[in-house]
């Protein structure tokens, strides 16, 4: 592996995200008046091929559900994470992300259940297998945004592990487990998800501090 490999991978991933976002944004625009656009119309509006659309979304239903969920959640999440009072506090930022998502849960969770079913089931015969993850990067982007204060503190491995762990406890899957398996109501659900996410953030910070005690020692030459 050369030193350029991570850069190339990062560039490809960024391009994938841009292409996917262009497709979703086109679907949102075309659906704004209540009409249901076709794959061809969405592809044309996104300036991509029909094949490219299917590389990211195995069906029109999948694409439209994803676009609707994004249009519902993105504005309030972006606004919440822009709050300057929590700019340097990753735990508070993750708490804010969770509360914001759960606020819109009555509208978004039914979409989430449908989207999960579509992505868990195998694609129908003849439909191209989507390249990369079957679900979009929206949740990962929000978690990375929330944990941004830790980006330069944790090692890259620790940071990515934290994002992966938070992916398990923040999102529709966690809500479904708490509601369907545990039978929790909204308040208990929020408390459990917030507690679990904060525990993960604090564990990552404690692990870093244990591995790098000089960071908290002002007398150490490398102390900050």
From TrEMBL:
Sequence ranges assigned to domain HTH tetR-type in this UniProt record: 17-75
Record-annotated membrane-spanning stretches: none
DNA-binding region extent = 38-57
Q: Does the keyword Methyltransferase apply?
A: no
Q: Which source organism does the UniProt entry give?
A: Streptomyces tanashiensis
Which Pfam family, just one, is annotated for this protein?
Answer: TetR_N
Instruction: State if Transcription is listed as a keyword.
Output: yes
Tell me which UniProt keywords the record has, alphabetically.
DNA-binding, Transcription, Transcription regulation
Q: Where is this region: Disordered?
A: 204-224
Q: What is this protein called?
A: TetR/AcrR family transcriptional regulator
């Amino acid at each position: 592996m050369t030193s350029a490999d991570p850069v190339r991978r990062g560039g490809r991933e960024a391009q994938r995200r841009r292409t996917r976002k262009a497709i979703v944004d086109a679907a949102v625009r075309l659906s704004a008046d209540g009409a249901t656009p076709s794959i061809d119309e969405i592809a044309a509006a996104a300036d991509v091929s029909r094949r490219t659309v299917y590389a990211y979304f195995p069906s029109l239903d999948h694409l439209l559900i994803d676009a609707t969920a994004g249009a519902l959640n993105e504005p309030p999440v972006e606004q919440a994470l822009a709050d300057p009072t929590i700019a340097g506090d990753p735990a508070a930022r993750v708490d804010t992300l969770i509360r914001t998502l759960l606020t819109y849960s009555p509208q978004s969770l039914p979409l989430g259940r449908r989207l999960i079913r579509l992505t868990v089931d195998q694609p129908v015969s003849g439909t191209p297998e989507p390249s990369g993850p079957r679900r979009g990067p929206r949740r990962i982007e929000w978690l990375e945004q929330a944990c941004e204060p830790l980006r330069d503190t944790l090692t890259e491995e620790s940071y990515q592990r934290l994002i992966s762990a938070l992916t398990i406890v923040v999102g529709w899957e966690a809500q479904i487990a708490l509601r369907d398996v545990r039978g929790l109501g909204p308040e208990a659900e929020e408390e459990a998800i917030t507690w679990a996410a904060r525990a993960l953030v604090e564990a990552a910070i404690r692990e870093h501090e244990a591995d790098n005690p000089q960071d908290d020692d002002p007398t150490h030459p490398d102390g900050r």
